[in-house]
Amino acid sequence: MTDFVVRPAVEGEQRALFEVLGRSLHAPPVDDERWEKRSAGWPADRKVGAFADKQPIGVASSVGTAMTVPGGKVVPAAAVDGVGVRADHTRRGVLTAMMREQLGDLQARGEVLAALHASETTIYGRFGYGIGTRSQDVSVSPRRARFRDSAPAGGQVRLISSSEAIELLPELYRRIGLRRPGMIERPQRWWSSQTHRMKDLVVAVHTGPDGDDGFVAYQPQDRVMKPPEMRIALAVHNLHGANTAAVAGLWRFLLKIDLVGEVRAFGRPLDEPLAPMLVDTRAWRVTDVSDELWVRLVDVPAALAARSYRDGDPVVIEVRDPFLPANSGCYRIGPDGAGRTDELPQLRLDVDVLAMLYLGEWQATTLAAAGRIEALQADAPERADELLRTPTRPWCGTGF
Ligand SMILES: CC(=O)SCCNC(=O)CCNC(=O)[C@H](O)C(C)(C)COP(=O)(O)OP(=O)(O)OC[C@H]1O[C@@H](n2cnc3c(N)ncnc32)[C@H](O)[C@@H]1OP(=O)(O)O
């Protein structure tokens, strides 16, 4: 029996919904001071609420953004950023009802994709989300990390204050931040939500031949400043460059800072080309690889039409989308683009699996071998790989 209602939140309900979210994520209660800091970044707009006896018991929030897709187009997208259900109301279908309401809202707004960072991998597949990007955490030893003569060099790095960072980074990110599939525009609200964090971070900017072209934000950790040990670790939370030279320049900077025993970087692209730049490749140690962005094709025809495809024989894919059935059907993808077709399918897959292929993270052959794709023609997975291949790994690089 449904004993709750799900509807868009209205003005005045924000704080109670924020509390529901916080509690579901085991955050401390929201006092006035904390709410003061967060309220501007938590408007009623784009919040779906669930209510039982008029009390809020669930929330699903999103922010409007845009995402780069393979080929370089940037499409309207939703960053789904706050989902929680009160612990005494879970497993009764509250999230399912909120997801239905939210996806309907995103469709109405004309958003082609939705994306989120999942707290658990078992939640979102049923709503059509699949792992669209993965990332790695690395630990680098500055003592061992010597760059080869062939590694990109040049450029300058300067430290800036947190108030300069608040001024400069939004514009810099706007110029350099959409270069890979999976990267998203950072709305002003995102930057505002980072303002209080920025004070704890050290920020450095890289300048290349065409001006500022990269930045890194890091934080000292595990401080040991007692002889004979004088060491800290640096935790890198954000490192973006317009090109490989800028990324390499920022890494060179981090790895030559005095008194640093380890540089830990979180959520880096899987194809960050740093290890092969080093004389001792084991100085670059991957400590974790995990799902980064879960992606949902909200409008499958528009999403497939927006990305580019490589040369190769076209493939007909049957997509099953029980949650948004209008997306279901057969699509022909080929070097000239993609669209609906009446032709017989050669591959059959669920919409969450299409999301795994869409940005180029996974190969159709891998997912067919795993039983996630049904190959109705034996060579169709290989042909799909050819068409969908991307020159760089997709990566988001923005937490939300
Ligand atoms: C983008 C983000 O914000 S990620 C953060 C997500 N939030 C959290 O992790 C906070 C803590 N957890 C919660 O608030 C809730 O448990 C939620 C939001 C994850 C799920 O809400 P619920 O209302 O319980 O989900 P709902 O009842 O609609 O479940 C739908 C299905 O998903 C399954 N499911 C839901 N949550 C989980 C989970 N954490 N692990 C495994 N299965 C799950 C249910 O068993 C159910 O399966 P069924 O359809 O086979 O019966």
From TrEMBL:
From which source organism is this entry? Answer: Amycolatopsis taiwanensis
Q: Name one Pfam family in it.
A: Acetyltransf_9
Which residues does acetyl-CoA bind? 83-85, 91-96, 119-120
- GO MF: aminoglycoside N-acetyltransferase activity
One Gene Ontology biological process: aminoglycoside antibiotic catabolic process
Q: Which residues form the Enhanced intracellular survival protein domain?
A: 300-396
UniProt keywords (A-Z) are: Acyltransferase, Transferase
Against NCBIfam families, the record matches this protein to: PRK01346.1-4
What the entry lists under InterPro entries is as follows: Acetyltransf_17 (IPR041380), Acetyltransferase_Eis (IPR051554), Acyl_CoA_acyltransferase (IPR016181), Eis_dom (IPR025559), NAcTrfase_Eis (IPR022902), SCP2_sterol-bd_dom_sf (IPR036527)
Q: Is Acyltransferase found in the keyword set?
A: yes
Provide the family line: Belongs to the acetyltransferase Eis family.
Q: What is the lineage of its organism?
A: Bacteria, Bacillati, Actinomycetota, Actinomycetes, Pseudonocardiales
Q: Which domain of life is it from?
A: Bacteria
Catalytic-site annotation from UniProt: 124 (proton donor), 400 (proton acceptor)
Sequence ranges assigned to domain Eis-like acetyltransferase in this UniProt record: 182-296
Kindly list the residue ranges recorded as spanning the membrane: none
- Summarize the subunit comment: Homohexamer; trimer of dimers.
Keyword check for Transferase = yes
Q: What is this protein called?
A: UPF0256 protein
